[in-house]
Amino acid sequence: MKFVPSILLFLFGSAFLGLWALDRKLRFTATLAASFYFFSSAMLMQVAFIPSDVGYNGLISGVFYATGALLFSEGVLERSRHHLLPWAAVLSMVGIVGGLWYFYFVDRKLIVWICILNLGLGLIFLQTSWQGRFLLTGTKRDKALFWLLVAIGVHFLPRTLLTIGSVNPMMNQDSLYQTDFWQMVLLSTSVLGTLSGLCLLGILVIDLISKLRRESDLDPLTGVLNRRGLQSHTDKLPHLSTYGLASVVAMCDLDKFKTINDTYGHAVGDIVLTAFADVVRRNIRKEDIVARIGGEEFVIVFKDMTDEQASAFSERIRKAFEHTSFKDVSIIEPVTCSFGLARIRASESFWVSLERADKALYAAKHSGRNRICTEWVQNAMS
Ligand code: GH3
Ligand code: MG
Ligand code: MG
Question: How far apart are CA 6 and CA 41, in angstroms?
């Protein structure tokens, strides 16, 4: 029975390691795995009396607890691309190890020894939550992580006070390890360890699922939305904005793209596609939507725009692309694109509006390419 907490913590460590194996880019899951392994080993040392010398047992398990707490904190911050302050980490480690050593080997004071370990660990978590207070402005998962850090940090304080009332200062470590009080400490640590592990694991699994969902909405070549992503974004599109304007959809197609592929190769074609997506991204607003829905076919949704504004934005993209030079490849003739624009009508689905934009694009292709045709003015401008 007494090994259950170590085993549970070990299993959580292995679960985090498994998550890391699934996605090596999530380095913080490896940090969290290491943290749980350190906690598990520290508990194992205490319940199995390894090493058997009480002073060294306390000292080494204390170092392991502190390392576990620092790795836990680093893992939580690393998830949001932040890091522990190095001086705070070094200071807490030196403070805890120095204190445990001094109050056992030099001036043996059991209560001070226990306070140093508990308060030291509590302070590591509280300092991390202070450093991670930006989590409070994040998602629900970020907030849950913040409060988890606070709860773990705060729980050490009453535990320390309780220790002072319950432990006889004259007692040595040997008899302390035999008391019901110590068993209670071990039990509460394992309950908290299990709850934290479950909470973290839940958060990380949801993180992973939402990352996969986001990635499945993106085109891997250009990084803009794919057809599926466009569908989910346009499902939420309001028909009329707060300004009373509707949105305009542009269907864009690269001109004579097959010739580029045939002359320079498919790899160069890919560079051109990526460059086009970059030009679009640079020339639209952040509320607009861009997606690649076919080989060299892109859709742009200009939100809340008048016909003239949408035409002007499209014209800006057309001109910018015409003058683009491509990274690491020399293409002799300018590569151009054509646009077909249609207004998104409240009475019809987005895809019907897109068909009308496609018709306008067809007109642009037939009237010479490298131009914009709109459903409202069927003649070309270039
Ligand atoms: P138009 O001006 O009439 O649009 O002529 P086009 O040659 O651009 O039109 P077409 O639709 O005949 O050619 C599209 C080409 O796009 C054919 C295909 O080889 C190429 N293509 C489709 N997907 C990709 C891709 O992912 N990468 C590259 N490099 N080429 C692609
Ligand atoms: Mg084309
Ligand atoms: Mg095409």
Answer: 7
Atom of ligand 1 nearest to the CA of 270: 29
In a domain, 222, yes or no: no
Question: Would the CB of 270 count as within 6 Å of ligand 1?
Answer: yes
Residue ID of nearest Cα to ligand 1 atom 31? 295
- C-alpha–C-alpha distance, residues 138 and 176, integer Å: 43
For the segment 146-199, what is each residue's pLDDT rounded down to a tens digit?
A: 999 999 999 888 877 777 767 776 666 667 767 777 777 777 777 888 899 999
Burial 274-311 (b: 16+ CB within 10 A, else e): bbbbbbbeebbeeebbbbbbeebbbbbbbbbbebeebb
Domain count within the chain: 2
Please compute the mean of the pLDDT values over residues 297-319 and round it to a whole number.
Answer: 95
| Chain segment 268-303, per-residue pLDDT in tens | 999 999 999 999 999 999 999 999 999 999 999 999
286 C-alpha to ligand 1 centroid (Å): 28
221 belongs to a structural domain: no
Whole-angstrom distance, CA of residue 229 vs CA of residue 249: 15
If pLDDT is split at 50, 70 and 90, which confidence band does 379 have?
very low
